Each structure stands twice: as structure tokens, then as C-alpha cells.
Amino acid sequence: SMPSEILIKILSYLDAASLLSVGCVNKHFYQLANDNGIWLKIYSSCFQQKRTVRKMKTGQTETGSLGCAALHDRNPGYWKKEYIIKQQAVVKARVMQLVKRVVPYTGLCKHKEAMKASGLSWIIVLKDKHGEEHMLEKGRPAFKDTSVTVLWYSTNWPCLEILSTLKLFGVMPLLPDQSKAHSKGPHRRSLIAEYSLTNLTENSVAVGADKLVQLFSLGPGLLVGLWKEKKEIAFVMASLHYHQLLERSTLGSATVQYALPPNQPVRDDIDPDYGLHGYSLHLDLHGRSCTYLCATFRSLFCRKVDITDGYLRLRVVSLKDSTKHLPLTGTLGLYWETDVFKGTIKNCFMMVVTVLDGTGKPFWCFSAPVYMEPSSEASGLYDCSGPIYTTDYADSEGKVFMEFVYLEETKEYFIVSLVLYISTKKLNNWYGTNY
């Protein structure tokens, strides 16, 4: 019942984020919160601070160079949109400067700094069989060289039996510069991935356990930890590779994922082994809070005779060449925590692979949880003084095989064999070849 003029006067004292929140109350408040007079004042104070407010000859006051025509000749909400667009443009320019700086050994830009500058974060939304959604916002990110691992935990998870899907979103604040002051202010979601939680223990891969929890892998990079006694969710962990993560986290919508642009192959009829040499690998093995290995390998190649069963084989570490065997620092395990408990899943870790082609362009990138198992086959390393373990990973684009030896004397794991298998289908699509 309060007159609109009085409400607009009250709203004029609010900042931009509060105005956007008020506009979500109802249609009447939405119209009031779109008032061009209020938003022109906010716009001018933010982007025209160098211009002074001066008296017009007619006795009217003009803010900066914008007169009354800027109010009456514009549709309601015009200056609100202009303010949001310009705010985001300022942050985008800041982020683009960081994105241009490519790290040579990874072929990726400085994502950690760019993500912090943009205010980007990630949330998960659990949907039950009745259509109700449960959102978890406060994920704990751990940034590495080529990936970020985000952990969510709560004491109030929905019952696992009634859950149907889990959605992973990138979240960008509409007003990045005010995101810290308004943690629950206006945001924009971008769908990154969607996973099915129906019959979780049957339709996913078990990748390790300790006394309290058991881990299940859903697709590349997502882990769900279940309490052993209750068979309910303890935590959710996502490991996200930096390659095109900014695009996937910001350019999609709340319902549709961002479609990655297809690679345009460039043919080379001069080189008979085109696409078979010049590869580089950056390998990062970590347990979320600690790093066990961070190494780069260059000049990887494959001969035509080594292309078998639809895969290009790149041997990175050879069992026979002991000079290239790599030690892992620390005790292998994936660290987890909740409000009450914390622990480490032994022999489980995140494997982050970044393969670059001959031009230094990211060719095959992933981040996924893996588990180290005792080897069932005899190794060719006869002088080893400890047990032998293997780790396998496979997706639609390739496979990774690693072999470890545990040295009892130094209590260390050594990588004694590392082989990449890249799908020839991916190779031919990338280079326009026909292997």
C-alpha cells in the first residue's frame, strides 16, 4: 500500500547487489528496482567518478555528461543492464590478460589467477526422485598446476536412496567486484556435467576405502564418498582439469553445457610421420592437499609399426632404462575431510594428464581418481627389492598404464613404467590423417 515514489526513494539507498535481490521479490518490486534514475546514479558513481556534477543553465542537475534524456528516452532497466555489462567487461578484460599468459611446460594459461580474478566458484545440485533440488555451495577448492579439486561436505545430506542425479555447475557472480561482500548475491550458473546417482554402488567404480568411507568414481574426475556403516554420502569431490575449464564454467547455461569448438585439422603431406612425433606430457599426481609428482616429458613419439589395436603408443618411462625412473614424494593417499572426521584413502590419488601436440596445443587432457593395485604379473625389473603395483586409466580418447616399485629401504614408490595409448580415431580427427 506504500506509494511507489516512497518505495523508489527507499530503494535509492541500496547498492547494486541489494537492488538485484529486491527485484526477485515480486513483479511490482522488479519494476521498481529497474528504475533508471536509481541505476543511472549507481552507473555514474562507478564509471564516471572523474566527472563532476554540475548545474545546468536551466537549473537542472546532470550526473556527469548524462542529462535527463538519459532517463526518459530509455526503457526501464536500461541502465541496470548497462551497469552489469560494463562491470563484467571490466572483469573480463582483467581475466583475458591472465589467460593470454601461457605456461610453456603445460600449454595452459594461468587459470588459478584468472579464476580468482573472475570470482568463479563451483556448486553441486542433488536432485531427488520427487524433483526437489538440494544445493551445496561452499566447496573447498585446492589449486594445483593443471587442475583444481573441489570438496563438498555436509551434516545434512539427502538420503542416497531417493537421489537421482548430481549436477556440477560453474558459478559466476553478476557483479564480480562485489561478490565478497554479497556471497549470496546474483549469480549465473553454467552446467559442467551431470551424473546419475541411481544404484550408485552398482553403477560406479569403487576406487578405494579406509575404516570410515568407501570411494566411488562417477565418470572422469568425480568422487562420492559413502559412510561404510550407513551407506550414505559423506562427501563429494570433483577434480577439474584447467583445459577449457573457464569456458565450461562460464559460457554454458543452467540447463545446457558449453559445446567445445571442434578442432580444425591442418594437413601436412610433406611429413610421412605427421602426427606421430613431437608430443609432450605434463603429469601431476596428487592427493588433493599434497603433490606426489609433478613432471614434464618432451619429444615423445611413436613409430608406425607401434600403432596396434587402434592405439598410438607413447612410451614415457621405460622399465629397462633405470635412469628415468621417478620417485614419488610422501605417502600415497587421497586426503578427505568432513565437519567431524577426516582421513586418507591409501594408494588412491588424482592423476592429471596434459598431453600437448607438436605445436604445444593441448591434445588430450583429463583429471581422474585412480587406485594403485598389486601387480598380478611378474615384472622385468629383477633387481627390485619391494612389491610391484600397477595403475590403469581408460576413456574414449586413450589409456594410461603405470607400473610402480616400492623400495623397502627408503620407503618410496618409484615409477618404473609409464605408457600412453592414444586412440587413432582421436589422432586422425585431430590431424586429418588416416592411420
TrEMBL record:
Segment forming the signal sequence: none
GO CC annotation: SCF ubiquitin ligase complex
Domain F-box: 1-42
Protein origin, superkingdom: Eukaryota
InterPro entries, sorted: F-box-like_dom_sf, F-box_dom
Annotated protein name in UniProt: FBX15 protein
Source species: Ceyx cyanopectus (Indigo-banded kingfisher)
